[in-house]
Design goal:
With 133 residues, the chain is an all-alpha fold. The protein has six helices and no strands. The relative contact order is 0.11.
């Protein structure tokens, strides 16, 4: 499966620890390296190109949230400009699940990781409950 990887939660994980300027920048750079690889390597596959660009959109949104949390205005502007550029290119917005995962990343404690990894089941149950009403 292309672009699939296993995610492991560690105590000092960059993705679940409190953001610092270095962590935000490192996380965005690592994700963009992966996204650019798929974007450039699979240029003839529209499905992978769209997937890579949507991942870029999510990555820049995550960076934007981190820079807002850190009150770093220049970094906010950089990520916002890139976010809007990718958003215009694919004419697509983050879905609710992506937004919730990003917000959960910035909640303190183990509660956020509990919900983060169970989000699919939570959203599925929520949809089923709404349909039953």
């Amino acid at each position: 499966m292309i672009g699939y990887y296993y995610y492991r939660t560690r105590k000092n994980s960059i993705s679940l620890s409190k953001p610092t300027l270095k962590k935000v920048i490192d996380k965005v750079n690592a994700e963009m390296y992966k996204n650019n690889y798929f974007y450039n390597y699979y240029k003839n596959s529209p499905v992978i190109i769209k997937s890579a660009k949507s991942s870029m959109l999510s990555t820049y949104f995550t960076g934007l949230m981190g820079s807002i949390y850190l009150n770093d205005y220049s970094l906010q502007q950089k990520y916002l400009i890139n976010f809007r550029r990718i958003q215009r290119q694919i004419n697509w917005k983050l879905d609710l699940k992506q937004k919730i995962k990003i917000i959960l990343t910035y909640l303190p404690g183990k509660t956020s990781s509990f919900f983060y990894y169970r989000l699919d089941a939570i959203l599925k149950n929520l949809k089923m409950n709404l349909k039953q009403r």
